[in-house]
Amino acid sequence: MALKVAIVGLPNVGKSTLFNALTQTAQAQAANYPFCTIEPNTGDVAVPEPRLDALVAIAGSKEIIPARINFVDVAGLVRGASKGEGLGNQFLANIRDCDAVAFVSRCFVDDDITHVEGRIDPLSDLEIIETELMLADLESLEKRMTGLEKRAKGGDKDSIATVRLAKIALDQLNAGKPARAAKIDKEDEKGWHMLQLLTALPALYVCNVEESSADSGNALSEAVAERAAKDNAKSVVISAKIESEIALLDPSERAEFLETLGLAEPGLNRLIREAYSLLGLQTYFTVGPKEARAWTIHVGDTAPQAAGVIHTDFEKGFIRAETIAFDDYVRLKGEQGAKEAGRMRLEGKEYIVNDGDVLHFRFTS
Prior knowledge:
Number of helices: 14
Distance between the termini: 22 Å
Mean pLDDT: 87
Number of strands: 12
Low-confidence stretches: 25-38
Radius of gyration: 23 Å
Helix content: 40-55%
Strand order of the largest sheet: 2-4-1-5-6-7
Shape: flat
C-alpha cells in the first residue's frame, strides 16, 4: 500500500526542516525566505516498527523490510494562493493524489525567522490554508458541474451519483466547512474519493514548537490541539529543529540525546503513528529465514485483502492464512513453538486481520 502524506503550511513554519528530518536528507532546502521549495520534494520513510526486531531475533531473518510512508513537501501556500498569489495554485495539484494532509503550524516565537503574515498565530495560519484549499475545491467543482448535470439529465447513472455527491460537498464548502465534515455513506466512499477534493482528505495538525516544549508543547500548540479536537482531526507536537538534529546522529547516539532532552522517542515516530491512526491503518507481518517484513493494511481488512497487498494473485487464489498473534509468536519463540502450543490458527476468507498478526498465506495460482 503506497501511503502518501502531503506536508502543507505557510512559508517559514518549518515544513522543509521537518521534511529533511523525516527523510534524513537535505533534499528540501530549508531557508529563511518564502518559496524556497519550488518543486515538491518527495521522500520514502521507514515506519518505525520495533516488533520487527523481536521477530528477527527469533526467526533469524537475514533482512528486515519495514513498511514505508511517502511524504510530499509542498511549497508554502499564502493567502490568495487559489487565485494565483505567491506561486499560485500549481502546488494544490500536488496534494490531490495524497491520502492525507499534515498541516504544519508554527507554534514557536523566533524574531530571526520572518513570518509571511507578520505575526505568530497558528490558528490564523490554519484558517488561511484551509480557506485556500476550500476555494480551490469550490472552483474545481463549479467547473465540473455544468457538464456533470448535462450528462445526469441524459440519464447517465455515474453522473447522477457524482452530481449528488458534488452537491453535498458544495453545501459544506459554501457553509465555510471543509468537505471532510460531510457524512458520507459507506457505499458512496469510492465516488466521494473520485471527486479528488483537497478538503476531503483526513487532516493531521503538526505543531512545530521550540526545543524546550518538544515534550509537552506550549500554549500555542494547546490551542491547535483544541482546534483539532473540534475538527475531528489529529494533532501532534514536534520540534522540527530537534528532529533535524536527531536525523544527523548515529543510531547509537540518538537514545542518549533524547534522554538529555527528556524525550522517550523521536517526535517523528509519533507523527507517523498518528498518520496511521488517522487513516485507519495497521500492520501485519510475514516472517521467514530470508526476510521479516511489515505490511500495511486497513483496520477491518479480511485475510484475502491482506494477502492482496503482497500480490493480487494471493487474493484471487486465497485458500487460508496460517495465523499467529504477535504476542504468541514472541512468547512461544516462533512458528514451531506456536504450533506445538496450539496457537497457530488456520483462518479463512472471512477472517478479519488483527494488528501484529504473523501470517503465512496458502493460495492457488
